[in-house]
Write a structure and sequence with these properties.
The protein is an alpha+beta fold and 258 residues long. The chain is 24% helix and 23% strand. Among the domains are: 36 residues, no CATH class; 82 residues, Immunoglobulin-like (Sandwich).
Length: 258
């Protein structure tokens, strides 16, 4: 009879939560005390392949499947990178263009180009800055649809030639910085520059210089030729002949030396 009140007091004095249930810590201590094999990590089969219900519960690795070796792979139709163990896999609702990549969490982001070199050319009486570029570690499936050039803070639309070259329209004012982009957001590293639109005057000057040189050479050759002719020996009109030969009329006897 004395033992019954003691047991009731122990039960009522156990820690309880707001709902009147005993706390998890209290229950866990009871399990560990009353079992020779406590609950462990292996009891929940965390190392075994999981079905879709596991992915829905664990949002840390969305759209992934767990392999037997503990590594993760993307589900069919999803992609990822080296961050699969940090943010899982994703996909883009629409197909990205030839210079864009489907990036987390599912947006098409244009790749950042890099300018190899550039120069100014006159094409069809218009000045262009011809830019040769590349995108590191990227394979183009087709030519980009559009491209843009930025001179300092001025942005102009470029003409796409191929997957390695674009034509940037030249501007009237000088510029000190040049960059290119495919979406006006992801710009290439800035290239230093100092270019001004050409008026075509240098080409005219070069043509005049070449013409003057040709005329000068022709005139020099003509004078040299005349100088050589003037030094050639010639006989004066009033000089005496070196020998006389008698003339023979018709019917006369010719001299013996004929």
């Amino acid at each position: 009879m004395i033992l019954i009140p003691f047991l009731l007091f122990s039960a009522l004095s156990a820690p309880r939560d707001a709902m009147g249930h005993r706390s998890r810590r209290h229950r866990k201590s009871r399990i560990e005390q009353g079992s020779e094999n406590p609950i462990s990590h292996q009891d929940f089969n965390f190392d075994m392949p999981q079905d879709g219900s596991f992915d829905q519960i664990d949002d840390s690795f969305p759209n992934t499947d767990l392999r037997q070796d503990g590594s993760r792979v993307c589900k069919k139709g999803y992609i990822s990178d080296s961050t699969i163990d940090k943010r899982g896999c994703w996909k883009c609702d629409k197909e990205c263009d030839s210079v864009s990549q489907c990036s987390y969490p599912g947006n098409c982001i244009a790749r950042i180009p890099k300018i190899n070199n550039y120069n100014v050319k006159n094409i069809n009486k218009s000045n262009f800055v011809v830019v040769n570029y590349r995108i590191p570690n990227f394979y183009f499936k087709k030519d980009p649809k559009q491209a843009f050039c930025k001179y300092d803070d001025s942005v102009v639309e470029a003409t796409v030639v191929n997957v390695k070259q674009i034509f940037c329209p030249s501007i009237d004012s000088p510029f000190t910085k040049l960059a290119i982009s495919f979406d006006q957001q992801s710009w290439s590293p800035i290239q230093g520059a100092n270019q001004q639109k050409s008026s075509g005057l240098p080409y005219i000057i070069i043509g005049i210089v070449i013409g003057v040189v040709i005329v000068g050479l022709a005139g020099f050759a003509f004078l040299l030729k005349n100088k050589k002719v003037s030094k050639a020996p010639h006989r004066e009109s009033n000089s005496k002949p070196l020998a006389y030969f008698p003339t023979v009329e018709d019917g006369e006897k010719k001299p013996s030396y004929y």
